[in-house]
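Researcher: Let's do a round of design. I'm pasting the structure tokens now; please hold your answer until I've finished.
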């Protein structure tokens, strides 16, 4: 799941990014309104965390322009101003939720997951594939009825492949789903995660398509 974080406070932005990455989100961080506008025009995101007081373009304008461009990405507003008019203005401008600073990182993670569930076409749909069961709402995975302990990135990789079952995803496409801007990516990171998943689940689940990428084949009807 890829999140655009828009926050000009470096300390706060750093903390939010780290917290979201820990929860398994890939995070792109824009530090002003124009950078956010550009990112939204060019990249698909699963959700946006938007500060309102921003340099170059106010957060409310970033939101207004995205909605005017028919971008329906779920948006959660961060605001220090706990005033009713601000919140109403944000929701009127097309925000889906808001949090008042200071807030708890765990609450931000939970609200983002709820927004993404609501925004997706198959909310909370369990994914069942062979003896594998993945529950996006609870973020847990079962193999042959037994829980499997996956790291946040292993989970994200498995989820991406299952959502695209039958399609081959390239290493670059997978990296984009797992990593945010500027994050250090080991050249063999995806191979390593695939290796872990095969070991923890079953070797036959994920197929390597030489020179192209990886796929989980569709189940026979
Ligand atoms: Ca700010």
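Researcher: That's everything. Go ahead.
Model: Designed sequence:
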């Amino acid at each position: 799941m890829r999140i655009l974080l828009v926050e000009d406070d470096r300390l706060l932005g750093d903390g939010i990014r780290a917290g979201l990455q820990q929860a398994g989100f890939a995070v792109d961080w824009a530090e002003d309104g124009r950078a956010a506008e550009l990112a939204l025009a060019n990249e698909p995101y699963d959700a946006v965390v938007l500060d309102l007081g921003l340099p170059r373009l106010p957060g409310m304008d970033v939101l207004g322009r995205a909605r005017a461009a028919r971008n329906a990405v779920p948006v959660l507003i961060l605001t220090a101003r706990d005033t009713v008019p601000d919140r109403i203005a944000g929701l009127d401008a097309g925000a889906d939720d808001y949090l008042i600073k200071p807030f708890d990182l765990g609450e931000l993670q939970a609200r983002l997951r709820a927004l993404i569930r609501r925004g997706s076409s198959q909310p909370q749909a369990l994914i069942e594939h062979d003896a594998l069961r993945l529950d996006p709402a609870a973020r847990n995975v079962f193999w042959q009825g037994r829980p499997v302990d996956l790291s946040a990135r292993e989970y994200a990789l498995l989820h991406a492949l299952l959502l695209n079952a039958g399609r081959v995803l390239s290493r670059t496409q997978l990296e984009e789903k797992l990593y945010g801007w500027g994050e250090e990516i080991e050249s063999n990171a995806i191979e390593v995660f695939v290796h872990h998943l095969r070991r923890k689940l079953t070797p036959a689940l994920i197929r390597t398509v030489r020179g192209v990428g990886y796929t989980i084949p569709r189940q026979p009807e």
